[in-house]
Amino acid sequence: MSEATSTTEARGTADAPRASRPAPRSFPWAVPPDATDDEIRVGRRRWYAGAVFALLWQVLEVIAVWTDGRSLRAHVVSTIALAVVYAAYLFAPELMWRRSLRGRVVVLAGVAVLAALLLFVVGPLAVWTWLLVAALSGFVAERFWVAGVVVLGIVGAQFLVAASTGWDTAVNSGILFAPVITVSVGASMLFFGRQREAEQRLGFAQDEITRLAVVEERARFSRDLHDVLGHSLTVVAMKSELAARLVDVDPARAKAEMQDVERLSRDALQGLRRAVSGYREADLDAELVSARAALSAAAIDAVLPADGSAAGDEVRSLFAWVLREGITNVIRHAAASRVRVTLTRTTLTIEDDGTGSTAGATATAGARTGGAFDVTGGNGLRGLRERADAVGATLTTGTSDLGGFLLRVERSRR
């Protein structure tokens, strides 16, 4: 059982779903160059939803161009130039999705050059189109400060244009207000970028929690399977051997033992079904009865409590598991003739006079003790340590007063 359980736990860890990789820092629509098709599809949807909204505000730019008092020809040329810049802004991400940082910078620089050339066609009002370049800067922001530098550069250029036209003219035409809007757009981008990063980290954490939950559940099932079948099959084997020896000398006793084997087999099957369903809780009173019968079948003198009423409600399940595993190990490994079980509200102690450990050790979650009990590598006591640690109890192993092995679990009073 130990080898099988170890294999199950190892396979559970290996087969558990892995958490998705944490995506690098990016803006909501600026997916990393190694993104999957699904991630690009999501980024594309986010980008075009926001880009179309941004272009709607550019209607004010077109209106301003057509009401600036220039000739019809100048208006038409300016409108065509604006349309080229808007198209470049709208479809530039298609050239960025799978490119490295350098490739994205080249595309961004191309759009920025087109926007800068608008100064010669549209005039100072072209500074309002530079907001679109600030929006595109999110595609090159592997770190947020990159977008910050781009935005500050655009703001500086806008101030230069305002200074070249004269501050009074810049104020009257509203050009001096463009840097404020640019900073606002940049701050919004940084905000959405951080929000996106938080969403990515949250998704990664949720995936990791899911993976750990699967691993823990598989480990729990492995422990339960070991505890159910390990104990029951040990008693079945002992009673079967006893029945085989008695079949010729005392057929009635042999028949009674085989009836016990049938009962224990049914109990094991029921326990297995409960373990599979995930609702099994060990019962201390039932384990005391089972331990008494198992020790009697193994011809081991036992001193056990009549029932489990002395134990506190919060530790009854833990004590039941410890009793089951402790008695199973006594029968399997200890070669003992006497066993003593002591029970209080917060402590369960199992002692024998067999070939137990010669040195004690205390463990809250990982004791290491040699001896008849398979403490170092067995899944049984390792599972008990995990159960004890889960409820804040201490598992102790050592040499008993009877000369054999001692197993004690104790939960401090609260």
List the keywords.
single chain; 414 residues; alpha+beta; 6-stranded mixed sheet; 6 strands; rod-shaped
- The proportion of residues forming helix, as a percent range, comes to 55-70%
Elements, N to C (H/E): HHHHHHHHHHHEHEEEHEE
Poorly predicted ranges: 1-24, 358-378
Number of strands: 6
Major sheet characteristics? 6 strands, mixed
Helices, by number, come to: 13
Which overall shape is indicated by the principal axes computed on the Cα atoms?
rod-shaped
The assigned structural class equals alpha+beta
Q: What is the spatial order of strands in the main beta sheet? A: 1-2-3-6-5-4
Write down the overall mean pLDDT: 77
End-to-end separation: 36 Å
Strand content: 5-15%
User: What would you report as the Rg, rounded to the nearest angstrom?
Assistant: 38 Å
